[in-house]
Every structure is written in structure tokens, then in C-alpha cells.
Model the fold of this input.
Amino acid sequence: MTRSEEAKPAYTGPVQTYYCAGLLIDFDGTIVDSTEAIIKHWHSVGEDIGIDPDVILASSHGRRSIDLFKLYDPSKANWDYVRHLEGQIPSKFGSDAVEIPGARAFLQSLEDGNVPWAIVTSGTRPLMTAWLEVMKLAHPKNSVVAEDVEIGKPDPACYLLGKDRLRLGGQDPILVLEDAPAGIRAGQAAGCKVVGLATTHQLDIIKETGPNWIVRDLQSVKYAGRDEKTGLFKMEIHNSLLQE
Done:
């Protein structure tokens, strides 16, 4: 066996089942990968405000734009500006985004099964809505966006608000799907079980945050029906990372 084969992650975990009352799903990096679009966006912004784009990008993923502007150009840290700016990204760079493998089928299965779910994103509402339109993906009935909370991820406020918007009880089991360390920590702090997707960050970084499961993408998460006795929804996690 070669060294590269030894180092290859083992996504061979047996099927595991989790029963939940609903799901809270991150957007960028979990449903859509807009990495290339965001890189181009922040390069444009960096040139405009006189900040090295690579400096901004090093801390941008999973964080709200308004929080980044507070750091790099407070004069632009207002919701009117941020919403307008982000709303233009899909029309300018839409061809640079792709859906995460399995996302389309997974969201549609939730819709078909009447499973309560919401998007919880660090992006603004114009950004989320425009991406869903461009990608022609299922629209959630509920969502939590950047402007809905005072403090962004890793603070749990966004996921706690997501629970409220699903109108589920405080003790109801909720499954969070996330790709970013800040989001994984936010979901954990909100008392949820978390599936970490190894789509945008190095695997070691994801492992350090300690999600309950780590998978490659949404092809490994399946809706498998409803338990008639409890009313909970059966979710299956396939091919998770085997961890020591």
C-alpha cells in the first residue's frame, strides 16, 4: 500500500440512523458551492476598499459580510449596502457556482416527505433567494439569514432562531447540516446533532470541531420515511468517515 493510499480518508462507515423533528441546513458549502463566485466577489470588493482580497478571504467563509466590513471598512457595514452588494453576486458570477452533489435530490425528498426544514445561512436574504432561483433548487418555507441575528456563527443564535421558525419544541431533536467550522460549532452550541460536510474545508479542520458525523457531501444523507408512532423523521447517514 502506498503512502497516499494510507492517508486516504475512509468514508466507509455503516449506515447510521437518526430520528429528528426537523432539519436546519446551512447554504453555501452545504447546498451550493459558490467558492469561485465568492473569490471573484471579494477580489472586487478588496480592490474597491484597498484591502488585500486574500486577507479577506482567509476569514470569510461561514461569516457574514457585515462582520467582515466591520473589520475592514466600517463605513460599508450597514444592511442596505450589504444586501444590495450580495444580491448582485448570483447574476454576476452565477456560472461559477455548482450545487453540492446530492443537494437537489435531498431537498426534494424533504419537500416530498413534508419534513420541516429551514436554511440557516450567513448570507443575506437577497443572496440566498437569488442563488436558489439561479440554481432552480427547492425553496424552504422557513429560513434564517444574516440580517436576522445580532451575532453570526459560531454564535448559536441563528440555529436557535431556526428552531423557533420550525415551530418545534425546545427538546425536539434537530439535525444540522454544515460545512464550516463556525457553523458546526453554532449547531452544537444550539444543542443539535451535526453532520459535517467535507466540501470546502480541510478534513482535519472539520474533525477538530467534532461533528457527530462527517460525510463527503449530501449524497450520503438520506430521508428514509417517518416513524408513525413518534412522528419523527428517519434520516440515514451513509458512508460517514471512520474515525479513530
